[in-house]
Amino acid sequence: VAWVYRHFPLDFHVNAQKEAEAVECAGELGGNQKFWEYTDKIFERTQSNGTGFALTALVPLAAELGLDSAKFKQCLDSGKYTKHVKDEIQAGQAAGVRGTPGTFVVVNGKAVDTVHGALPIEQVKQRVDAALGGGF
User: Fold this and answer.
1) pTM confidence score
2) CB of 15 within 8 A of CB of 51?
3) Secondary structure letter of residue 56 according to DSSP
4) CA angle at residue 20 from 19 to 23, to 5 degrees?
5) Phi, psi at residue 112, to the nearest 5°?
6) Do 54 and 15 touch, CB atoms closer than 8 A?
7) Which residue of 6, 27, 43, 112 is 20 to 30 Å from 64, comparing CA positions?
8) What crossing angle do the helices spanning 16-45 and 82-95 adopt, rounded to 10°?
9) In terms of DSSP bridges, do strands 102-107 and 110-116 run parallel, antiparallel, or are they unpaired?
10) What is the spatial distance between Cα 80 and Cα 87, in angstroms, rounded to a whole number?
11) Cα atoms found within 13 Å of the Cα of residue 119, Cβ hemisphere only
């Protein structure tokens, strides 16, 4: 099983685009481990109020995780990942993603199931097991 993460910031979450860009900057500066640490902290600390994680807290979070805050701010302010995140949104829309999370079960290069929204891991596992046992 391989799990691939793509950004899909929803437009009604006003800070989500910049948060996704910040995650990319964390990954650039700190590798895969910092990408995931930063991602986890964003989701852990985001309020359910439509604004998400405060933009003013993005650089301090990077510093908290041991990243160089000046380099992080430079990366974030440069907008170097804006197009990358927007491209991932467009690709997701083209693939049929309607919200987050959007999960595709792919066997031998063919999408055999789509999971829309968050489900308990047990239900996702059942769908993956069914796809793998389906002889695709």
Assistant:
1) 0.84
2) yes
3) G
4) 90
5) -110, -10
6) yes
7) 6
8) 80
9) antiparallel
10) 13
11) 14
Phi, psi of 101 (to 5 degrees): -75, 155
Token pair of 95, please? 């693939």
Q: What is the pLDDT along the chain (136 residues), one digit of tens a residue?
A: 677 888 988 888 889 999 999 999 999 999 999 999 999 999 899 876 666 789 999 999 999 999 999 999 999 999 999 999 999 999 999 988 888 888 888 888 888 888 888 889 899 889 888 888 865 4
Q: Write the Ramachandran bin of 105: left for phi over 0, alpha for psi from -120 to 50, otherwise beta.
A: beta
* Rounded-to-10 torsion of CA 79, 100, 97, 22: 10
Rg, Å, the chain Cα set:
16
Peptide bond connecting 9 to the previous residue in cis, omega within 30 degrees of 0: no
Q: Position of tokens 């500066």? A: 29
